[in-house]
Design goal:
globular, alpha+beta, 89 residues, 2 helices
Amino acid sequence: MRKPIKSYGHSYYVVMIDYGQRGLEAIVQPENTRREIVARLKSGEYQNVEFIHHVMDGLVEDVTFELIEAAEAELKDEVRALKAARSAA
């Protein structure tokens, strides 16, 4: 019987930005959470994203579309709220 793999809880995101002919840049800031990545996508700070990987305990998961969709959904909610506020005024 195999021992269960211990989880050390180390988790971080790798955001790969494509600068075209200038090349690629991997942004790795272990302190950034999912929430912060989504916020940076919403603000436009992260543009031309090639991929976003979530690394946890040595396993890598591609979360590019998931996080981009989350940012888009939040932006849509904010637009709806602004429209509702303007209608109410």
